[in-house]
Amino acid sequence: MKRRLFWVPLAAFVAVAGLFAWMLSQEPDRQVRSRLIGQPLPAFTLAPAVPTKPGLTTAAFRTGQPRLLNVFGSWCVPCAAEAPQLAKLARAGAKIDAIAIRDTPDKVAAFLSDYGDPYAAIGDDRNSSVQLALGSSGVPETFVIDGQGRIAHQHIGAIRDEDVPILLARLKAAR
Amino acid sequence: MRLLLPFALLLAGPASAQSNVPPPALADTQLPDPAQERSAKALMETLRCLVCQSQSIADSDADMAADMRALVRQRIAAGERPDQVRDWLIQRYGDYVSYDPPFSPASILLWATPLLLLGIGIVLARRSLKRRRR
Lengths: 175, 134
Description:
The structure holds 2 protein chains of 2 kinds. Chain A is an alpha/beta fold. Chain A has helices at residues 2-6, 8-25, 77-81, 83-91, 105-115, 129-134, 163-173, and strands at residues 45-46, 56-57, 67-72, 96-101, 121-125, 141-145, 151-156. Helices cover 37% and strands 18% of the residues of chain A. In chain A, the strands form 2 sheets. Chain A has a 5-stranded mixed β-sheet. Chain A has a two-stranded antiparallel sheet with strand order 1-2. Chain B is an all-alpha fold. Chain B folds into 2 domains: 22-102, Cytochrome C biogenesis protein (Helicase, Ruva Protein, domain 3); 103-134. In chain B, helix 2 packs across helix 3 (63-77). The chains are: A alpha/beta, B mainly alpha. At the A-B interface, helix 6 of A face helix 3 and helix 4 of B.
């Protein structure tokens, strides 16, 4: 009995070390996903981010047609990187609205003229209040909103080429 | 030339991923009511910055943390209790946003382990004391 107890601490140590080694070798998932998937879009009203385009309200998402809601900032480098993919989505028929985080009209206008403008409307979310209400934890993020104004899907990070068909399929499913 | 490099780096502006507008006033301005400010500050220290995940929003310089501090102060100033503000954020980001983990089946070991270990310690101590007395 005593003999066997003698080995317990070593066994415990090996078990803990093994657990650490295994967990450290796993790729950690640092994405913080919104818990609002499947729930209605929070109510909001945002002024236009650029004078040439309308602002954005929750009502715009209750038209019976699914839409994409892109969360971006003109100061955000990955947002510029995903611009060609957003253009591709728009060409494929996706309706895209956006909220501009912590931005100014002149900077947004310059961003649109530099990287293209796939947006129907852009809301000015200067203090990130709508971003926080959405459960979005960074830029860029893209939400698929179904025709009834419910959040159907959240894409975190820049949209890459291989994400385009996935988002189109999500849009189709959200009809 | 190589000797000058550190100084050249000191002069260079840091490449910033920060945004185009200054943080909202309430991000770094205390509330006029000291009691409210105290509870807002205490809450901020237990909320996780989502873009710098090992810091609280009270400690972080990130834009998003500033916006979250402003949100906390706004809601506390509007009369919400700290728990309501925390719940609002947990509804959106999950328990992860809070440094104060709730009591749930997933966290039961976290809360119960100290008591469990204390119990085991008492039993072991009793046994060895008894043995010694004999």
